[in-house]
Amino acid sequence: MIARALPVATVVATILVLWYLFAVILNAPWERDQAARAGAQITTSQLIANTMAQKRPVLPAPHQVVVEIWNTTALKKITSKRSLVFHGWITLSSTLLGFAIGTVMGVLLAVGIVHNRAMEMSVMPWVVASQTIPILAIAPMIIVVLNAVGLSGLLPKALISAYLSFFPVVVGMVKGLTSPDVLQLDLMRTYGASRRQTLWKLRWPSSVPYLFTSMKVAVAASLVGAIVGELPTGAVAGLGARLLAGSYYGQTIQIWSALFAAAALAATLVALVGLANRIVLRRMGMAR
Amino acid sequence: MSWGVVLGAIGFWLAAWALNAWLAQRTPKGAAARRAQRLVVPAIFGLSLLVLWEGITRGANVPTVLLPPPSMIGERFAASTGILWADFKQTFLQAVLIGYALGCGSAFLVAIAIDRSPFLQRGLLPVGNLISALPIIGIAPIMVMWFGFDWPSKAAVVVVMTFFPTLVNTVQGLQAAETMQRDLMHTYAASYWQTLFKLRLPAAAPFIFNALKICSTLALIGAIVAEFFGTPIVGMGFRISTGVGRMDIDLVWAEIAVAAVAGSAFYGVVVLIERAVTFWHPSVRGQRD
């Protein structure tokens, strides 16, 4: 454990040091400018101290971001519009709803593809091709069009998330459901198992590792979908809206804190799927 | 509302599906016929979806601001090739390609640079894996602030998005050569660089190309979404977001068609290069015959 922790800690520490260095370098011109305008000389130590305490820095120092995150999570009421927890929850709820819809639809389509040759040959090439195109580009259109129909709020964003998490699940599950080898399928046939029984007793259990692998990709993709889905609604609520509002008003610290909240959310979601993966595989006796 | 058109479209779709079901049951003899079957069936399915779309939007009088029929999108595409080409040049030829080359190239060089240090590799791999899973797209507003509205800010987003997947895959790929093979190089008294160029880089090629394929999609997404945060008045992302705002939905769909074609063509080119470089790999050899 320590053998692995030390290199990671070193890399993280290096990143932090570089970050502080760049914060000083990037924020210094503004401080010098201010000092020149005031007609005052500024000492180097004063300059460095100032670069880390600007209100709208080019690159906020890490501790400024941490303080902002602390201020907007722990010190604000959860219902407040300025609370990151409030915005994070809005993004999280549409992420989870979309992820659930996308995963269920993906599994259903994969089962259909595996059992129907016509469906496999017609649909599968399009599913694979759709992985290569920037699906996210249609996000604003979905939002605005659904708004025009009268659907607004959670569902349109969740649909984008669902759409993004759908394709990895289909591809992974088709691979998983076809992963039992001929020998195992032949054994099922000698038992006189029906297709339904083969599905439930052989194909489904052997596809579980594939399902979790693609769910890890899907949950990250659906968070990105939810964030991008929040952009075109004009920055109402959610982490994406915080990003957009921050960029409109030049509030860099707000952007960075929303970014870190999103990163923490993504890491937590992926870790949770990984944890579920380990628990399920252990209960199924498939853990390695 | 004219039910005839709708029913006709649904009927066409069902007939195409029946044809596909029949075609899929055939097991043609000969490789050429089988390849033709693999091409024709999805093509029929795609075409039938387009007809269904056209029939329903025209027959049921779906407002064109919600969902324009494909023929209208095609007309719009043909009428505004000038705009579409300008957007393509701005977003794809500048932001995506330059960002992609810089991001993947620098990640490759960093991977080679840390190749001799297992300590750095052990540290960078988990961090790189974590960052690859994060919504990096969120740095777009920061990059727009730093590098301005024009394409360099989009290229910067693309650089960051493509860097970590390439780094992680290249580092893993460089470890792919087997001990036996390395020992053989050692008995040849090959230097570090000879081993790198003659054994380890070729062995890493499948991993690197895997990353390049993932990054080709990521790059286009990064550039388009970054344009939602501010652009000069040209670019695919700009056209999509303003087109949506002005209810110019057919132009948006034309732009999406361009993005789809550009994305799959980009991916296809990477796959072609991969086939040429990793001709020895089992997955490529198997596809030859």
Task: Report on this structure.
The complex is a heterodimer of chains A (288) and B (289). With 288 residues, chain A is mainly alpha-helical. Chain A has 2 domains: 2-58; 84-283, MetI-like (MetI-like fold). Chain A contains 11 helices and no strands. Chain A is elongated. The mean pLDDT of chain A is 84. Chain B is an all-alpha fold. Chain B folds into 2 domains: 3-62; 77-288, MetI-like fold. Chain B has 12 helices and no strands. In chain B, α6 packs across α7 and α9 packs antiparallel against α11.
Could you write a compact summary of the structure shown?
Helices cover 78% and strands 0% of the residues of chain A. By secondary structure, chain A is an all-alpha fold.
Salient structural properties:
heterodimer, A: 288 residues, mainly alpha, MetI-like fold, 2 domains, B: 289 residues, 12 helices, flat
Count, helices of chain B: 12
Distance between the termini of chain A: 19 Å
Summed up, the domain count of chain B is: 2
Summed over residues and divided by their number, the pLDDT of chain A gives a mean of 84
Largest interface: A-B, 60 and 64 residues
Q: Which SSEs are present, and which pair or pack?
A:
The complex is a heterodimer of chains A (288) and B (289).
Chain A: H1 2-38, H2 44-51, H3 62-73, H4 84-115, H5 117-130, H6 139-149, H7 154-177, H8 182-190, H9 195-229, H10 239-249, H11 252-283
Helix pairs in contact in A: 1-2, 3-11, 4-5, 4-7, 4-9, 4-10, 6-7, 7-9, 9-11, 10-11
Chain B: H1 3-25, H2 31-59, H3 70-79, H4 81-113, H5 118-133, H6 140-147, H7 151-174, H8 179-187, H9 192-227, H10 236-245, H11 249-277, H12 282-288
